[in-house]
Design a protein that fits this description.
- The complex is a heterodimer.
- Chain A is mostly beta strands.
- In chain A, about 0% of the residues lie in helices and about 55% in strands.
- Chain A contains no helices and eleven strands.
- Chain A has strands at about 5, 10-15, 20-25, 30-35, 45-50, 55-60, 60-65, 70-75, 85-90, 100, 105-110.
- In chain A, strands 2, 4, 5, 9, 10 and 11 form a six-stranded mixed beta sheet that branches. Chain A has a five-stranded antiparallel beta sheet with strand order 1-3-8-7-6, with no helix packed on it.
- In chain A, β9 (about 85-90) and β10 form a beta hairpin.
- The N and C termini of chain A lie far apart (about 40 Å).
- Chain B is about 0% helix and about 50% strand.
- Chain B contains no helices and eleven strands.
- Chain B has strands at about 5, 10-15, 20-25, 30-40, 45-50, 55-60, 65-75, 75-80, 90-95, 110, 115-120.
- In chain B, the strands form two sheets. In chain B, strands 2, 4, 5, 6, 9, 10 and 11 form a seven-stranded mixed beta sheet that branches. Chain B has a four-stranded antiparallel beta sheet with strand order 1-3-8-7, with no helix packed on it.
- In chain B, β4 (about 30-40) and β5 (about 45-50) form a beta hairpin.
- Classes of the chains: A mainly beta, B mainly beta.
- The interface between A and B is medium-sized, with 22 and 24 residues.
């Protein structure tokens, strides 16, 4: 069945260092979404990418959608303690509005 | 953005009892809501799609007789865990799409409720 994997599973960085999480889908996606879940909280939508090769930026966060629309990445420049949480990518199941979530990357930031 | 609430935020119950969790869209109408389950340090697993006015559709491996879903109005979906057992202990989260996009979000964006932490003793 359709699978969405993320690497790494965990990342522990020093505040100020950069961070990247990679998302890989077994199937081509019409769009990819990124969510952030703080410890004890619920997922919060960050962004959606639709076009092949699309790159979007939100302050220190840079999101990229691969040319083949099967992979994506999230890069955080100069991490801050407020970046702590688990970052999930998610893509639609087939052509539906259902989402399949990636395995997630948990980011820990040492102050 | 659109707001989704869940009630209760946490519940502890004895094995064999049933627990009802409510999911409400507060400022938009949701013809479709989704129910997820999340075990500690794991990803979200979609359990079922709740459709207003019709039967829910369940993902493979999810027992529909155990996890009863009712979507009686455009703003409310309920998940009832029947005859709960300790292995049902988990974080249950609902989400909804704002199909009218009145909240101005991205198309396909799902708004998540705060979740319900269920502990079955």
């Amino acid at each position: 069945g359709q699978q969405v994997m993320q690497i790494p599973q965990y990342q522990h960085v020093q505040e100020g260092e950069d961070f990247t999480t990679y998302c890989n889908s077994s199937t081509t996606l019409s769009n990819i979404q990124w969510y952030k879940q703080r410890p004890g909280g619920h997922p919060v939508f960050l962004i959606q990418l639709v076009k092949s090769g699309e790159v979007k930026k939100q302050k220190r966060l840079t999101f990229q959608f691969g040319e083949a629309k099967k992979n994506s990445s999230l890069h955080i420049t100069a991490t801050q303690t407020t970046d702590v949480g688990t970052y999930f990518c998610a893509g639609p199941v087939d052509s539906s509005y259902k989402l399949i979530f990636g395995s997630g990357t948990r980011l820990l930031v040492r102050p | 953005g659109a707001v989704v609430s869940q009630h209760p935020s946490w519940v502890i119950c004895k094995s064999g009892t049933s627990v009802k969790i409510e999911c409400r869209s507060l400022d938009f109408q949701a013809t479709t809501m989704f129910w997820y389950r999340q075990f500690p340090k794991q990803s979200l697993m979609l359990m079922a799609t709740s459709n207003e006015g019709s039967k829910a559709t369940y993902e493979q491996g999810v027992e529909k007789d155990k996890f009863l879903i009712n979507h009686a109005s455009l703003t409310l979906s309920t998940l009832t865990v029947t005859s709960a057992h300790p292995e049902d202990s988990s974080f249950y989260i609902c989400s909804a799409r704002d199909t009218t996009n009145l909240a101005g979000g991205a198309y396909n964006e799902q708004f998540f409720g705060p979740g319900t932490r269920l502990t079955v003793l």
